[in-house]
Design goal:
transmembrane; 2 strands; mainly alpha; cell membrane; two-stranded antiparallel ribbon; 75% helix; sensory transduction; transmembrane helix; single chain; membrane; Rhopdopsin 7-helix transmembrane proteins
Length: 312
C-alpha cells in the first residue's frame, strides 16, 4: 500500500464511496454537474455584483465573499474527486494531501466567518437602519473580509504540522476522495490527543462561536421586528433575512452532522461518514447561488440584465 519511510507514507490512497466502487464512473456524471453548478452559479453572482452598480452595497459585497469561498472550496476538492471517480487515479502525494486538507478546512472556516458577517449586516440593517451606511462602510467591509481570511489562516496553520509529526503506519488509505484532518489523524499509530484537542478547540472557538453569534443576532432581529407596528413592515424585514437563514442552514446542518458522526459515530457504517462529508462539502456551494438567485430580486434582475447584455 505505498512506500513507507520511518514516519510517513510517500502517498495516500483516496477512496470514493465504499461498496460502490464499480459505479464510480457513473457517479462521475452527477459530480461533474454539481461542480458545474457550483462554479458556474457562484461565478455568475460574482460577475453580476461586479458589473451591476446597483449591487455595490454591503449585503452584496458579503455575498460576493461567500461566492468566492464556495468557488475556492470547489476548486480545492475538484482535482482529487474527479481523478478518483473518472480516472480511478487514487494516489495523492503526502505533502499535496496536507495542502488540500489545509485549503478545505480554511475555506470552510472562511465561509462560516462570512455567514457571521452577513448576520451582522442584517442586524444593523434591521435594528439600526439609520446608521447602516455609516457603520458598514467599504473600509469596514474590507476589514471584516481580511479578518475572516486571517483568522482561517492563523487558526489552521498548525494543522499540517500536527499531522506531519505523527508516525502514520497503520495504513495509507483515506476514507474519502479528498484529504481531511480527522481522516488522516485516524491512520496514526501514536497518541493523537493533541490533534483531537486542537481540532475540538478550533471547532468550538470558530464554527461554534460563529453559529452562536448568528443565532444571537437573529434573536435581536426578531425582537426588533416584533416591535414594528405594521405587519407588512415586519414581513418585509424578515424577508430580507430568508436567503441568509437558508444559506446558514445549508452550511451548518451538514457540518454539525459530519462533526457528530466523526466524533461519536465510530461504529457507524463507513458510507455514512462518506455521505455526510460529501454533503457538507458539495451541497452548500451548489445551493447558495440558487438560494440567492431565487430569493433576492435584485440578484435575479442583475443576472438577467447581464445575460441580455451578453446576447446583445
Amino acid at each position: 500500500m505505498g512506500l513507507f519511510n520511518v514516519t510517513q507514507p510517500a502517498s495516500f490512497f483516496l477512496t470514493g464511496i465504499p461498496g460502490l466502487e464499480n459505479s464510480h464512473f457513473w457517479l462521475a456524471g452527477p459530480l461533474c454537474v454539481m461542480y458545474a453548478m457550483a462554479l458556474g452559479g457562484n461565478t455568475v453572482i460574482l460577475q453580476a455584483v461586479r458589473v451591476e452598480t446597483r449591487l455595490h452595497k454591503p449585503m452584496y459585497y458579503f455575498l460576493s465573499m461567500l461566492s468566492f469561498s464556495d468557488v475556492a472550496m470547489s476548486v480545492a476538492t475538484l482535482p482529487t474527486v474527479l481523478r478518483t471517480f473518472c480516472l480511478n487515479a487514487r494516489s495523492i502525494a503526502f505533502d499535496a494531501c496536507l495542502i488540500q486538507m489545509f485549503l478545505i478546512h480554511s475555506f470552510s472556516m472562511m465561509e462560516s466567518g462570512i455567514l457571521l458577517a452577513m448576520s451582522f449586516d442584517r442586524y444593523v440593517a434591521i435594528c439600526d437602519p439609520l446608521r447602516y451606511a455609516t457603520v458598514l462602510t467599504t473600509e469596514v467591509i474590507a476589514g471584516m473580509g481580511l479578518a475572516v481570511m486571517a483568522r482561517s489562516f492563523i487558526t489552521l496553520f498548525p494543522l499540517p504540522f500536527l499531522i506531519k509529526r505523527l508516525p502514520i503506519c497503520r495504513s495509507n488509505i483515506l476514507s474519502h476522495s479528498y484529504c481531511l484532518h480527522p481522516d488522516m489523524m485516524k491512520l496514526a499509530c501514536a497518541d493523537t490527543t493533541i490533534n483531537s484537542i486542537y481540532g475540538l478547540f478550533v471547532l468550538v472557538s470558530t464554527f461554534g462561536m460563529d453559529l452562536f453569534f448568528i443565532f444571537f443576532s437573529y434573536i435581536l432581529i426578531l425582537r426588533s421586528v416584533l416591535t414594528t407596528a405594521s405587519r407588512g413592515e415586519r414581513l418585509k424585514a424578515l424577508n430580507t433575512c430568508i436567503s441568509h437563514i437558508l444559506a446558514a442552514l445549508a452550511f451548518y446542518m451538514p457540518m454539525i452532522g459530519v462533526s457528530t458522526v466523526h466524533r461519536f459515530g465510530k461504529h457507524a457504517p463507513r458510507y455514512i461518514h462518506v455521505l455526510m462529508s460529501n454533503v457538507y462539502l458539495f451541497v452548500p456551494p451548489v445551493l447558495n447561488p440558487l438560494i440567492y438567485s431565487a430569493k433576492t430580486r435584485e440578484i435575479r434582475r442583475a443576472i438577467v440584465r447581464m445575460f441580455c447584455h451578453i446576447r446583445m
